[in-house]
Write a structure and sequence with these properties.
Order of helices and strands: HHHHH
Largest sheet: none
Number of strands: 0
Distance between the termini: 12 Å
Radius of gyration: 11 Å
């Protein structure tokens, strides 16, 4: 399934369980605000997670992240 984060990706980029949840939500098309509400965390916290994910995977946008995960 294209909308699931695979374990090789998780290992390669050392993605934490929480980051995996965030990536999964991004793949599902959710906004940062929606992710914050879904996971019951602050919007600023979601932004920090997204920033960290972008740093780890060396991408600069959600689209690039989705393309990388689906490779």
């Amino acid at each position: 399934d294209d909308n699931l984060v695979n374990e090789l990706f998780i290992e390669k980029y050392r993605i934490t369980d929480r980051e995996k949840q965030i990536i999964q939500s991004i793949l599902d098309g959710m906004s940062n605000k929606e992710i914050a509400e879904e996971l019951d965390i602050a919007l600023s916290t979601v932004k920090v997670y997204v920033y960290n994910i972008f740093q780890k995977t060396k991408v600069s946008s959600r689209i690039n992240l989705v393309n990388l995960v689906r490779r």
